Amino acid sequence: MSDVSGDTFRGRPSNRSFKLRGVRGTPAQADAYEKQWALFGVDKELDLDLPTLFQDSKRYIVEIGTGMGEATAIIAERFPETGFLTFEVHVPGVGALLNKITNKGLTNVRIVQDDARVFLDQHLADHCLDGVHLYFPDPWPKRKHHKRRIVQPDFIELLSRKLKPGGYWHIATDWVPYAEWIEELVNQNPNFSGGEIIKPEFRPTTRFEGQGITKGHRVTDLWYLKK
Fold first, then answer.
1. Domain edges within the chain
2. Which of 3, 66, 206, 219 has minimal CB crowding within 10 Å?
3. Alpha-carbon distance 63 to 150, whole Å?
4. pLDDT at residue 42 above 60?
5. How many Å apart are CA 187 and CA 50, to the nearest integer?
6. Which residue from 152, 162, 133, 123 is spatially nearest to 223, judged by alpha carbons?
7. Which pLDDT does position 27 carry in this prediction?
8. Which residues are catalytically annotated?
9. Which residues pair with 132 in a beta bridge?
């Protein structure tokens, strides 16, 4: 997903920030995907108008990379008047999230199964988002793979276009060198201010995060405001 050239937004870049895995999941995930996608899935080729998509919402948040949907469903339940446009490319993860939002009876979540960077650039209006959540993106720790990290100068500029003035960008990572990479790049962009914060109460600690903490990983939360 993340060659630093802005031209990558115009097509389907081959150098992605995510690694496509198998589509195998649990029967419950597959069943949720089959039955609930029509209700909560978003056509990746359509231009979106968020007030039309979320008619009962007062704010609009994008979450990039929902994993198995644990944090997404909890946060969406806590903020029922916020519309959450979420991105996940892996079928088991989409099925897991569909299962969770169906079981909770949530109506304020929609899912795009596509490269978030391409979709945001091509199908979402500028200055329409109140916030962006990026939780535990792949750190691509090897130096030769750093170009695959989703946080690149062009991605930061993209979010500065999509966020409203005063909108926020919240990142969490358990890879300290990646947190330092993000801070260095965002500090170079004049459209954002902010930095490291204490973990906000609204962001739940997921099983994945808990496993990392047990292994001694330090989790960094970063919070930036669009000027």
1. 35-226
2. 3
3. 13
4. yes
5. 29
6. 133
7. 74
8. 138
9. 62, 169
Total length of the chain: 227
With a CB cutoff of 8 Å and minimum separation 6, the contacts of 198 are 221
pLDDT of 28-40, one tens digit each?
667 667 778 989 9
Q: What is the reported pLDDT for 179?
A: 98
Is 166 in a helix, a strand, or coil?
Answer: strand
- Measured CA to CA, the distance from residue 81 to residue 108 in angstroms comes to 8
CATH 2.40.10.120, domain 35-226, yes or no = no
Q: How far apart are CA 180 and CA 173, in angstroms?
A: 10
Average pLDDT, the chain: 88
Mean pLDDT score, 95-121: 95
What is the secondary structure of 51-83 as a DSSP string? HHHSTT-SEEEEEE--TTSHHHHHHHHH-TTEE
Q: Which residues pair with 196 in a beta bridge?
A: 222
Burial (0-12, 13-18, 19+ Cβ within 10 Å), 13: middle
pLDDT at 18 over 60: no
Per the CB < 8 A criterion, the answer to whether 144 and 180 are in contact is no
CA torsion, ordered 19, 24, 30, 36, to nearest 10 deg:
10
Question: Which percentage of the chain shows pLDDT scores above 90?
Answer: 76
